[in-house]
Automatic annotation (TrEMBL):
One of its GO terms (biological process) is immune response. InterPro entries: P-loop_NTPase. It comes from Tetraodon nigroviridis (Spotted green pufferfish). It comes from the Eukaryota. This is (spotted green pufferfish) hypothetical protein.
Amino acid sequence: VKCRNNKENLNFVKSYSPKHPEVQHLKILLNGPVGAGKSSFISSVDSVLHGDIMCRALTNVKLVDGSFTKTYKTYRFLRQSDPNNPFGFSINDIVGLEESKGVHINDISLALKGHVKDGYKFNPSCPLTEGDEGYNPSPTLQDRVHVLVSVFAADNETILTKEMQKKMREIRNIASELGELKGPAQTDGKLIEGSFTKTYKNYRFPRVSDPNSPYCFSINDIAGLEDRQGVHVDDVILALKGHVKDGYKFKPSSPLTESDEGYNPSPTLQDRVHVLVSVIAADNETILTEEMQKKMREIRNIASELGISQLAILTRCDKACPAVADGMANLYKSKYLKGMADELGDKLGIPPNCIFLVKNYEEETRIRDDVDAPILCALRQIISSGDDFLTD
């Protein structure tokens, strides 16, 4: 596979428009195990299209007497040339988390939603309530938090204690449910406690030149598959058929039913999935467990019955192969990765020319042509395959 012509592939992606009159944008569904890199791939696509790293995907001082910050404070930043015209962003500081005290999780949740007034003094003994003077009963979009940033000290003996990790995961889950803090895609790196994606989310990609005119494809993120829990196979099948409404929150205990609010009883061709992409992490000890293979084959069989195009992506190739970590030019030269792709193809029944190797943007602060190339190569083929489904 040659993935060198970035300009040609990028122009193809940017100029693509579905030929079918009933479809405004091609709908791509990412499917795969928890932690495979589905959400990271969405963020990487967004970075490639913007020409800059989209730092909206959250990746998962030694105080003696607790947090020094006591109040909820909004900081604006003034221009030297015009102090009356501050920069178009602000930063809010909040009381620090501590294992046994510090700010209440409920207070942070209220702050995310815009219910905490600027200047509110936190009470260590009890969280803010609706009757308090510092409570904002009717927050506007301006009052809400738009980006959540976690700040850590690198010189701590332990980067995160178990109790602190528990608190921060709870905050991240709340932020995820609000669906406003990290888009386009929310990721959780190597997950320990299941999928971080909780809702069925359709991601559109706005053009830099015209944000009101997004590109003519979208990618749907779905909760990850797990051996014994995770998203139900039935929910994935319903998503393929267009029965799952955007924003539906998956329930680990039961799949979506016709009586649920998140069920779309009359899906159009636009609601349906046009191409299914299986996403697998290349750096796992076992590429697919037997149970995972069984679930993914079941999903693929239904997709085949529906005529949906299918491809696969192997992510984290730089983590799996030291030669690729040394240079992306080695990506498709690696015998180890070729062996993994062949194994994946055998287990899922996907032909070799439909399996793509990528490295997602995770640690970089600037985009790189050699990282863009395989992402664009995969994206172009995904779009072409999905368009074939629409024209058949």
